[in-house]
Specification:
Elements: H1 3-34, H2 41-61, H3 66-93, H4 101-122, E1 128-129, H5 149-171, H6 173-183, H7 185-190, H8 195-221, E2 223-224, H9 228-243, H10 248-268, H11 274-288
Antiparallel strand pairs: 1-2
Helix pairs in contact: 1-5, 1-8, 1-9, 1-10, 2-3, 2-4, 2-8, 2-9, 3-8, 5-6, 5-8, 6-8, 9-10, 9-11, 10-11
Length: 302
Amino acid sequence: MDWEYFIELLLGGLTRGSIYALIALGYTMVYGIIELINFAHGEIYMIGAFTALIIASILTLLGLNSIAVLILASIIAVIYSMAYGFTIEKIAYKPLRNAPRLSALISAIGMSLFLQNYVMLAQTSDFLPFPSLIPDFEFVEPYAHIMGSPEIVIIITTAIVMILLTFLIKFTRIGKAMRATSQDKIMAALVGIDVNKVISVTFVVGSATAAIGGILIASHVGQINFYVGFIAGIKAFVAAVLGGIGSIPGAVLGSFVLGWTESFATGYISSDYEDVFAFLFLVLILIFRPAGILGRTDIQKV
């Protein structure tokens, strides 16, 4: 057995899973609060990457160094994406909060298609080159064929985001309000929690994590187009369902399982069926564990 090749696939799957996790966290947070699949979430990922590309191009022309470009472009792109997430919730979802779930689902799909075409018309339908914003670190050069500095930055950033998000939910006032709202929105409102504010904050936080993922993967891959959000969003949705939709640890676990499944399947079988392996694995999980790996099956009394 070629252990070096195995480790390369293992670390590659970890990198994929880290990106999926950043997007899946937004899916599972929104679903945990209002039980809605925000299918426009992948487009927030794409918009964050496009915004970073525009800002990075401007800052590079102004002569800033790569570190400053990375930090400033990321901050501006994340804030811009958070504004998009907030606006989408107010326009597409809040008016339908008490409507049948199918209405909100159709609205989410419509918003996804709108944002795709909006970016395509505002930018281009072609792939655009994305600058490598992540600098190379000399200490990883001997092992660059297995894992370079972009992969290390992606994994470390994902770990930091997960830790901060866990702290936010468990130890802050808004986090406690999120947990209360996810359990019972009516009772949360009766005890003085502003449910509308909690939902808006959830969309904003989820949009920020998606934007970070978009920036990192676009810088790593080196190109971007208007459609990348749809593919990444679907994969992250699969990861969230795989781990247990509504469970943050489940979304992270599902993302890594999906990343490793794709990495090992493409490495040892064929890269032509990368997406097939992922969705086949999802089908098997849902057959034997419908609630997902860490999900709980709700029992409704009648």
